[in-house]
Design goal:
Blueprint lengths: L1 H12 L9 H22 L5 H5 L18 E9 L3 E8 L5 E7 L1 H10 L4 H13 L3 E6 L5 E5 L15
Antiparallel strand pairs: 1-2, 2-3, 4-5
Helix pairs in contact: 1-2
Length: about 170
Amino acid sequence: MTAINTLETFVEQNKGRDDNIDDIGRIEIEKLLQTAHAYNLKNKNNLSNAVTVSKLKTLKKYIPNYKPSRKEFNIIQELGEGNYSRVVAVQHVVTKERFALKIIEKKKCHDLAKRQHPNVWNEIEMEKKILGERLWNYDDVDDNGNKKLSWCRRIVHLYHTFQDYG
């Protein structure tokens, strides 16, 4: 982790500067950082796709055939808890992007469906479907004064879903 932190600091400090390092050196340092991330992810987080994950620049873009894993995120803090789920703030280990992660426990849903809320599974699927749709608006204006298409800012966006045994 010390090597990764040192390399990340160096890359950040030398972004856009031409006097310290040439392009070939910058590319080599970024490759070294990627290799260090892959090694760390494979050993610490036990990820089978560590090389793929280490190449990621952002999770906010659709990447074909890529599904993130819970092991790729570090929990920062708990934001809230409901009947059958809780929401936590997480940070991706490579991209350093922050997300809100909703954790739905299957056991709680199963118990809730038996006791008092038989439509809990349907409710989860509807939420997933609605948040997964990209809702667009034309409120933004570009430099030429033309309206441009953008995501609604006040709507939560669903980037990825994944599940494990629990």
